[in-house]
Amino acid sequence: MSLFDVIHSLDLQTFDWCLKRKHRQLFVGLSRWISRTADGHLYAITGIICIALAQWQLVKVLSLGFVLERSAYFILKNKLKRNRPQQTIPGFQSVIQPSDQFSFPSGHTSAAFLMAGIIGALFTFVIVPLVIWATWVGISRVMLGVHFPTDSLAGAALGFTISQLSLSLIVF
User: Fold this and answer.
1) What is the rounded distance in angstroms from the CA atom of residue 172 to the CA atom of residue 169?
2) CA–CA dist 111, 67 (Å, integer)
3) pLDDT at position 82
4) What does the radius of gyration of the chain's CA atoms come to, in whole angstroms?
5) pTM for the predicted model, two decimal places
């Protein structure tokens, strides 16, 4: 059994455990709302506010971060082509319809951790709530049945890594 087989098996077990929780329906409603916060609207609003306030360095680091993150996300997703839970688990139906075909990494989670990493580094008083929010975005994608846990973990690692790279490349 290869390492990827072992990881996939653990992923399936963790996914199954999440979906069998007693209060799952409560989490599904909350997960829909949390997932929507990472659809991109708040990122655009943040960019517009930064432009309106003439925060040009922040606009640069956010723009660079999103260009790098979206590029890496797109390349990984289309190179690795990991099927979503709905295509992998017979009879399983996700709660929502995903926006694209493949599962790895979670784009919602990577974008959330990118924002949390950049905004949190510059405005340290909001880092804890931002990291909590980004973590819940990742969890919500699993609870909605559109990602396996490792998809969200990879998305978190990707987003945070690119946030730190972007911050190191743009001088404040």
Assistant:
1) 10
2) 11
3) 92
4) 17
5) 0.89
Asked whether the predicted pLDDT for residue 3 surpasses 70, the reply is: yes
**What would the pLDDT profile of 107-144 be if each residue is shown by its tens digit?**
999 999 999 999 999 999 999 999 999 999 999 999 89
pLDDT at 172: 67
Question: In the chain, what is the greatest distance between 2 CA atoms, to the nearest angstrom?
Answer: 55
Mean pLDDT for the stretch of residues 24-38: 84
Which residue shows structure tokens 């990577």?
110
**What are the tokens at 154?**
């990879």
Residues 6+ apart with CB under 8 A from 13: none
Q: DSSP character for 40?
A: S
* Distance in angstroms (rounded) separating the CA atoms of residues 163 and 64: 9
Smallest CA-to-CA distance from 85 within 71, 62, 70, 104 is with 104
Closest CA to 80 of 7, 162, 171: 7
| Residue 6 burial (10 A CB sphere; 0-12, 13-18, 19+) | exposed
- C-alpha 146/C-alpha 140 separation (Å) is 9
Contact 84, 94 (CB under 8 A): yes
pLDDT value at 24 more than 70: no
Tokens of 140: 């919500």
